[in-house]
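Q: cysteine-S-conjugate beta-lyase, please. Structure only.
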Amino acid sequence: MSAPNPSEPTEKLNNPLKRFDLDGHDLPPSPAPSSPRNGRLRYALATELVYTESKDQYGSSSVPIYQSATFKQSSASGGQQEYDYTRSGNPTRTHLERHVAKIMNASRALAVSSGMGALDVITRLLRPGDEVITGDDLYGGSHRLLTYLAANQDIVVHHVDTTAVEAVQARVSEKTAMVLLETPTNPLIKIVDIPSIARLVHEANSKALVVVDNTMLSPMLANPLDMGADIVYESGTKYLSGHHDIMAGVMACNDASVGDRLFFVINSTGCGLSPNDSFLLMRGIKTLAIRMEKQQASAQAIAEFLESKGFRVRFPGLKSHPQYDLHWSMARGAGAVLSFETGDPTVSERIVEAARLWAISVSFGCVNSLISMPCQMSHASIDAKTRRERNMPEDIIRLCVGIEDVNDLIEDLSRALVQAGAVTVTLDGFHAAGAAKELGETPLTVG
Ligand code: PLP
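A: Structure for cysteine-S-conjugate beta-lyase:
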C-alpha cells in the first residue's frame, strides 16, 4: 500500500476517521473489533464462537499476533493511538477480550495469564476487614489463595456448603463484600443454585459482588452473568483453549465500573495475557462447541457404564444425581468431568496407575482424557483434616473425558478396573467389588 502524500489533501486525509502519522502513513487499522454490542444479529453460540469481526488491513481470517511490547506514537505528546504499551493493551488481546465478552454475554471481558491470575485480580477488589462467603468443595488453588488472603490481608473467609442456599443466607451480612461460587463443584460434583444465591445476596447487601468460577461448564454450557452474577471468570487453560498447551484466565462483567477496577489491577500488575497466548486462546475458542459436544456425550456414556457396574458415580447428566433438575435449570449440558468411588483409596490408586489411555494428570477440559485422585493431586493443598470435615472421599477418582473414541476409553477403563481388583469378574461380566458394599447397596452384575 503506497502512503498518501500529506502535502496533497486526498479523500483519505479529509476523512476525520482516518489517522495519519507525521510522515503521512495510513496507520494500520486495529484488528480489535469483535464487538459484543454492535446491534447486529446474534447467532447461535456455536456460530458466535467461530464468527469474528475484524478491521485487519489484509482481511486476515485469524487475528494477527502483535508480538510487540510497545507501539509508536504519532506525536511528541503521545497522540491518540489505541495502544502504546502491551501491559496496558495489545490488539491481539483486545480482539480476544471482545470475543470472550460476546460469548459470555458480557459488556467487558479481560484476559490474564491464568485462571488463578483472574481470581487474584478479582480478589484485589477486596479491602481489609471485608468478608467473603465461599464453598466447602472449592478448587484447591482458590482455597489456597483465600487462605493466604485470610492470613495476610485481614480478609475474613467463610467456607459454607453453598449447595444449601440457607447456609449462604445465614452468613450474608453488610460486611459481605464477595460471594464466590463454583458449580458443579469439583470433585464432589455438587450443584450450586446461582440465581437464588445471587438474589438473596443482593437483597441483603446491594454492594456485595457475586463471583462465579465457570471453568467446569464454560460459556458453551452456562452464562452465570444471566443468572445474576456480577463477575464470571474461568480458567482458559481448560475448555476454552482445549489442548493443554497454554495457561490463561478470563473474567467478564456487565458493570462498567467493575470492569474498570479489574482493568486497573491488570494494568498495574502486568498479568494481562501475552499476545501469543491470546492468539492460541482465540484459536481454541473457535472449536469449543465441537469439542464440548463430543466430550460430554462420551462422559455421559462413561458415567452410565460405571453406574451400571455398581459404582457410585457423580455426574449431573445422570438422573440419579440428587440435584439433576437444579443443574439443568441453569446449564445447557452436563460437562465432561465426573467422579466415582471404589471404596478403597489403594484400589483407586491401582486403577489410576493401570489406565493407559487416561493420562494421570491434574486439570481438565483437554482433548485428551485424564484420570486423577483429587485428594492427592489437584486438592492436595487442602489439608487432610479439612478434607475429612468436608466429606471428601479419599478414594474418589476424577475422570476428565476427552475426544478419543468412547469405546476405546471404556475398554481401557474396564481393563484398569479388572487389573486393579476393583471389580468382581463373573461369567456374565463384572461388577464393583467394594464401592456398592461400602454404600450399603446391592452390587449390580451387568454383562
Ligand atoms: N478454577 C477451577 C475450577 C480450576 O479447576 C482451576 C484449575 O485447575 C482454576 C480455577 C485455576 O486455573 P489455572 O490453572 O488456569 O490457574
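A: Brief note, in case it's useful. Residues 3 and 238 are 44 Å apart (CA to CA).
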